[in-house]
């Protein structure tokens, strides 16, 4: 298992390009936040789909690492996303992940993505990660 502080340090040192904050981690769950900037928008004044997918993937990674420890080579093998409604261009994007299955070699989780404090999700994703075998 990894603590919030350990995860924050890991992302700062190993993934300095990660521009999200870890809001919380819990039992097989995590919430992360991304501040939206003009470069994250698409025509029409909404957050781009790739930004939402990036945050869904990051939320899965944070949640899995919080359970299995800092296993950098755990990798995405599948990510499906449904875009449900238009996110606001002037609100942070919040991703809440819950793991559905955590096995020895695969982890599956779902992520609900919100625009600021709006109660309805703007997107929903389900993803699978491959967990490398433990070193002997």
From TrEMBL:
Name assigned to this protein: PaaI family thioesterase
Superkingdom: Bacteria
SUPFAM superfamilies: Thioesterase/thiol ester dehydrase-isomerase
One Gene Ontology molecular-function label: acyl-CoA hydrolase activity
Keywords tagged on the record: Hydrolase
Signal sequence segment: none
Gene3D superfamilies: Hotdog Thioesterase
Domain Thioesterase: 44-118
Record-linked InterPro entries: HotDog_dom_sf, PAAI_dom, Thioestr_dom
Taxonomic source organism: Thalassomonas viridans
Key word Hydrolase present: yes
């Amino acid at each position: 298992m990894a603590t919030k502080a350990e995860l924050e340090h890991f992302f700062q040192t190993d993934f300095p390009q990660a521009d999200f904050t870890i809001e919380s981690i819990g039992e097989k769950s995590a919430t992360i936040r991304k501040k939206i900037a003009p470069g994250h928008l698409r025509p029409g004044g909404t957050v781009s789909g790739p930004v939402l997918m990036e945050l869904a993937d990051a939320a899965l990674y944070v949640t899995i690492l919080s359970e299995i420890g800092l296993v950098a080579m755990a990798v995405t093998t599948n990510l499906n996303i449904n875009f449900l409604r238009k996110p606001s261009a002037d609100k942070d994007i919040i991703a809440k992940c819950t793991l559905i299955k955590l096995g020895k070699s695969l982890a599956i989780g779902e992520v609900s993505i919100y625009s600021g404090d709006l109660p309805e999700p703007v997107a929903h994703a389900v993803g699978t990660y491959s967990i490398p075998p433990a070193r002997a």
